[in-house]
Amino acid sequence: MTSQSQGIQQLLQAEKRAKDKLEEAKKRKGKRLKQAKEEAIAEIDHYRLQREKEFRNKQTNVMGSQGDLSAKIEEQTTETIQKLTSSYHKNKESMMKKLLNMIYDINPEVHPNFRQAA
Q: What residue ranges carry the coiled-coil annotation (predicted)?
């Protein structure tokens, strides 16, 4: 009987060691998974930061070009307004004289299609 109880004790101890090894393997697996997850998150964050930086650079290039374009359009508009204003002041008197002459110089005539009633 003692040999049977010793055999049972050995089996129980072997079972306990196997269970401990299994628990330890599960813990290592859990640690590896957690580490892999952390590495993946770090890689994703790095990639995201890189893409955001590229986007900001492109956006700056495009917006910078638009800013230059906007300033150029503003300058052209101001120049055109100045030209129109100077042209207005330059031609104002002569146009007023022409209009008034047309209004004052009326030559009353009978229209050729007019028929007198008999």
A: 5-39
Q: Which two tokens stand for residue 10?
A: 């050995």
> How do residues 67-87 score in pLDDT, each as one tens digit?
677 788 899 999 999 999 999
Dihedral, CA of residue 22, residue 23, residue 27 and residue 29, to nearest 10: 20
Residue 77: strand, helix, or coil = helix
Measured in residues, the chain has a length of 118
The reply to whether the predicted model has a pTM over 0.85 is no
> Residue type at 101?
N
Give the helix/strand (H/E) hosting 82: helix 2-104
pLDDT digits (tens, 9 = 90+) for 2-50: 777 888 899 899 999 999 999 999 999 999 999 999 999 999 999 999 9
Map tokens 């300033």 to a residue: 71
Tokens of 116: 């007198």
Q: For residue 9, with 0-12 CB atoms within 10 Å meaning exposed, 13-18 middle and 19 or more buried, which class applies?
A: exposed
Q: What are phi and psi of 37, to 5 degrees?
A: -65, -45
